Amino acid sequence: MKTFELHDATTVQQAVTLLGQLGPTAKVLGGGSDLISGVMKDWIQGKGMPLPSALVDITTIPQMTTIQVSGSGARIGAAATLTSIIEHQEIRRGWPLLVDATESVASPLIRNFGTLGGNINQRPRCWFLRGEKFDCYKKGGDFCFAVTGDNRYHAIIGGELCYIVHPSDTATALVALSAKTKIAGPQGEREVAFDEYFIGPRTDVLRENILQQNELMTEVSLPPLASNTKTAWIKLKDRQVYDFALVSVAAVVTSENGVWRDGRIVLGGVSPVPYRAKVVEDALQGKDIRANITAAAGAIRSVARPMSANSYKVDIAQGLIERAVLQALA
Ligand SMILES: Cc1cc2nc3c(=O)[nH]c(=O)nc-3n(C[C@H](O)[C@H](O)[C@H](O)COP(=O)(O)OP(=O)(O)OC[C@H]3O[C@@H](n4cnc5c(N)ncnc54)[C@H](O)[C@@H]3O)c2cc1C
Ligand code: SF4
Fold first, then answer.
1. Is 90 exceeded by the pLDDT of residue 241?
2. 292: containing domain
3. CA separation for the pair 198, 210 (Å, rounded)
4. Tens digit of each residue's pLDDT (9 = 90 or more) over 34-60
């Protein structure tokens, strides 16, 4: 592993200042489960993805590890561990979807030190990106090896230039829950809906979100769910012990007498960003959910563009959407 400087920030302002002073190869450090024991250990680098030279630890900033719940919703510090979210009784009662998604992340050990901000901002898992010998677009190279290579785990929707799938289970749940995040930078803090946070390769193939190098995510906020809103989380994976999603579905369903009034259906494992299946939501609008969900779930086929080895994901996505919506209703 390459050596690096380690800075323990004690305030958000200090972290922002350090990131500015240390320059473009400085990175924010959460639990380090991806940055240190993945990216840096495996020497994943390229012209557009230099190895970090300095890390700014934010788990040492007390305000960033706390979780607060009130009548207006929940605020979770970006450095809160995944386990602290799962074990928080008020989060369990108010946002079981987030708890279920978080509980499906990795192993108990990783969840004990992996942070919410680290999970949302982790780099993709494409095996070409993670392989030393493949200088692909996302590393600043000039080819996507998934186009001609083994693309069984790659995107079926929204891939252009690069066909990664967004790796974060919590990100999928947070988009479904209409959550927002706070970003701190040299100009102060701003709040951004997760709808606007993730960016695809067409916008910038080198990044997966709008964060600039000298910015960090400080907190995630969740609005309360309406009383007639129900949720469900389903994740299908290859290895049952722990694994990333082949396909996951986060469903938030607001209904009246079984009729769809509002809601969100968001898919993980299918696209470079957590993918909101508007096409399915629109097909359910104002309709009896149980009578129409099979046909509505089939609408996902109209937006899917599978590659040579991953058309099985289209079938899984359709089946899981139907199952997740019915599970939420039940
Ligand atoms: C074996 C294994 C299995 C896994 N399985 C899953 C899975 O099934 N589902 C899933 O979702 N994840 C999975 N993961 C990923 C794992 O959950 C993440 O590695 C972990 O959540 C990242 O948290 P961290 O705090 O350790 O992040 P770090 O490694 O510290 O950081 C990850 C990235 O996020 C950036 N970052 C961290 N915090 C912030 C912040 N506050 N603001 C801005 N940028 C920030 C870092 O700069 C870095 O680029 C798996 C990982 C492993 C090793
Ligand atoms: S899918 Fe993206 S990360 Fe994977 S090889 Fe292609 S360009 Fe690289």
1. no
2. 229-329
3. 6
4. 999 999 999 999 999 999 999 999 999
